[in-house]
Design brief:
The chain has two helices and 19 strands. By secondary structure, the protein is mostly beta strands. The radius of gyration is 19 Å and the shape is elongated.
Length: about 240
């Protein structure tokens, strides 16, 4: 264990990298910056609270903290960078602050115990492999602010049963929902996409519900899934 004095304002990159026996740490309110890989591979760390003055969580900050079951992220945080919580395999839930606008690539990859997550309504992009391998994720709410879902974003989310994509989503990357083996229903509200990711639903048994009248457009974009694309009257469902 370690106690950081109140005189400290910055925890630099790699500060506690690989401290595998560290189970607890007190970060004082004076800290405003947590550098990249600061707590990477602290594999015995079970919980941590981030001070209110921190505005960003840098790359790999808590990557491979495999015993981390909870983390408190303050609303002051505006940016959570790539790989920040990669392979935090004991983490069951996490709050993403309302001011976050991008979920970067690989941010939550390998968080295999994560069961649900709420994406703030200012997020515009869900990056590549952002939730890859989150095999316990059963539901996710995607707000109307999201326009882009990156390649492999939900690859291997094998417990996800259905997903609804708002009209704002017009770009879906390659293999975005690959190996989502429990995914039976996908609701896409946009009349067309600018990007139909190759093999977006590879190895996923989903039926794809698109706005009535746009079936042929989607079948042209995703010919491999033509037999599973069904028109749906979203106006009547509202």
């Amino acid at each position: 264990s370690i106690s950081i004095p109140k005189s400290v304002t910055t925890i630099g990159k790699y500060s506690f990298y690989g401290c595998r026996s560290l189970t607890s740490i007190n970060i004082p309110e004076s800290v405003t910056t947590i550098g990249s890989s600061a707590f990477q591979s602290c594999s015995s760390l079970t919980n941590i609270s981030i001070p209110e003055r921190v505005t960003k969580i840098d790359r790999y900050a808590f990557s491979n903290c495999r015993s981390l079951t909870s983390i408190s992220i303050p609303e002051s945080v505006t940016t959570i960078y790539n790989y920040a919580f990669q392979n935090c395999s004991a983490l069951t839930s996490i709050n993403i602050p309302e001011r976050v606008t991008i979920i970067y690539d690989y941010t939550f990859e390998g968080c295999s115990s994560l069961t649900s997550i709420i994406i703030p309504n200012k997020v515009t992009t869900i990056g590549s492999s952002a939730f890859r391998g989150c095999s316990s994720l059963t539901s996710i709410s995607i707000p109307k602010s999201v326009t882009t879902i990156g390649g492999y974003a939900f690859y291997g989310c094998s417990s996800l049963t259905n997903i609804s994509l708002p009209e704002s989503v017009t770009k879906i990357g390659n293999y975005a929902f690959r190996d989502c083996r429990s995914l039976t229903s996908t609701y896409i509200k946009a009349t067309s996409l600018s990007t139909y990711g190759s093999n977006a639903f590879y190895n996923s048994p989903t039926t794809i519900y698109v706005p009535s009248g746009s079936e042929e457009t989607y079948k042209a974009g995703w010919p491999d899934y033509a037999s599973r694309i069904v028109g749906y009257d979203y106006s009547a469902a509202q």
